[in-house]
Amino acid sequence: MANFDRNLTRPFSMLFICLLGIVPHTSIAASDDASAPFPNIIILYADDMGLGDPTCYNPDSKIPTPNIDKLAADGAMFLDGHSSSGICTPSRYALLTGRHHWRDFHGIVNSFGKSVFRDEQLTMPEMLQENGYHTACIGKWHLGWDWNAIKTDQGKANKSTRKQGFGPDDFDWTKRIPDGPLAHGFDHYFGDTVINFPPYAWIEDNQMLQVPDTMKDEKTWPKIKEGNWECRGGPMVTGWNPYEVLPTLGDRAVKYVESHKDNKNPFFLFFAYPSPHAPIIPNDEFDGKSQAGPYGDFVYETDHIAGRILDALDKAGMTNNTIVIFTADNGPEHYAYARDKRFGHWSSYPLRGLKRHIYEGGHRVPFIIRWPGVTRAGSVKDGLISQIDLFATFATMLGYDLPEEAAADSLDLMPYLKGETDSARTSHVHNTWPGLYAMRDGDWLLINAPSGYRTNKQNRDAAFEATKGYTHDHGLPVELYNLNDDIGQRNNLADKHPDKVKALQQLLKKIQKDGRTRPTKP
């Protein structure tokens, strides 16, 4: 078994003190040119990566992640960084809008689903566009398009089900697809929208590069290496190979960075990985690179792509004027249970929970920021932060006056990044499912339900939980934890601190009712 139980009662930051002994305590210098434009921004957004996967977060990880580790050594590593949800669409929405997803929706965009953005909603890339940035999204979108606009009469009449799906003749693939990335702040898009959803073909900007001419047929694909394909039925271009998706996206990202070498205006690249999300398909050259099976090899390949992008920055001479952020949309998939049993690697280490859960493992994710001239190299920060805070932070950098209605829950990280304050925020609301919330305030965390799972059977492994000492059938209506003493969320204190439970419930109701957490202007 993974060394999960070692000294989990001590503060979380102590688990990573070894990092401080191997990195320099210097900062990457900012440009000396006072007339230089705002820094470039790259967000490397992994899909379904656990806090215990990168070596910089887990010294006992069975997965080498040299490039992520190097980024942490050159920047700041956050131990208490969170996505908005335990699933992907809501987290991406919250990152790009600075708004808790649960104020608007909870679930994912399904195959050929519509956009989750409101028409006039300000997004982070739109704000950056207004300030002279060229903006690009490369990779997974999963925030919806207006597919109805390109449906044929046959497609409009098709009452698609998840099992059967739409067919190739249900769409006019020559038409431009409205209400995608280009409608919400991106100048450029390249990707397959979602690796395990149709259409299985490349999209550039708002138009198909290839015409899907057949239905998805997994028998034509190379053998999967771990788990199931988990790919929805629907149109596919003949010869589509999911193994080519990640390296192709990496190639495009490198070319995008290289294309801005001599540009005077800054760029924003949102590189949204399809990995290590299922299907778990590391390319052959990465087989055996980890000691955690194909998933570990896929994380290694994910790290390799990060290295390629960072190398492109170095070669273009842009490292000193580029903010790089590495984080993930949520925790690891349920295959993590078998991985721990077989390889002794717990992807959520030292946390409880996985993707979809509102236990910490569902949404506390790797979060690294390298900001030349702002973050101190090798710094390890244990203050609470959220991905929704990036919006307001970039607004401060730009001197941009955010409208009252925009970025309703985004808090400015700048003072915390500079070391002027000890924390960025004191509270955060965690949520994946309707009606199932967790309220964080300081070290205290209330799960305002009998458990952090949607149901008792939902992506749970009871035998695994027994070996880890988790308490589940405690008979209490809520769960309360002190994360400073109990990062693994084993000891439910709800019956011992009823006043704390009540106070957190009241705080949750207030945040829900107020409609915002970003302070209003005086």
In brief:
This protein has 522 residues and is of the alpha/beta class. The protein has helices at residues 17-20, 66-74, 88-97, 124-130, 153-157, 245-259, 293-315, 336-343, 389-398, 414-417, 462-468, 498-514, and strands at 40-46, 76-82, 134-140, 188-193, 203-204, 207-208, 214-215, 235-236, 267-272, 322-328, 367-370, 379-386, 427-431, 437-441, 444-447, 479-482. The strands form three sheets. It has a ten-stranded mixed beta sheet with strand order 6-5-4-3-9-1-10-11-2-12, sandwiched between helices.
Tell me what you see in this structure.
There is one protein chain. The chain is an alpha/beta fold and 522 residues long. It is 23% helix and 15% strand. The protein has 12 helices and 16 strands. The protein has a 10-stranded mixed β-sheet with strand order 6-5-4-3-9-1-10-11-2-12, with helices on both faces. Helix 6 (245-259) runs parallel beside helix 7. The protein is globular, with a radius of gyration of 22 Å.
Broad structural category: alpha/beta
The Cα radius of gyration reads: 22 Å
Overall 3D shape: globular
Beta content: 5-15%
* Strand count: 16
Helix content: 10-25%
Kindly report the average pLDDT value. Answer: 90
Give, in order, the helices and strands.
HEHEHHEHEEEEEHEHEHEEHHEEEHEH
Low-confidence residue ranges:
1-35
How can the largest sheet be summarized? 10 strands, mixed
Spatial strand arrangement across the major sheet: 6-5-4-3-9-1-10-11-2-12
Question: Treating each run of at least 4 consecutive H or I residues as one helix, how many helices?
Answer: 12
**What is the end-to-end distance?**
54 Å
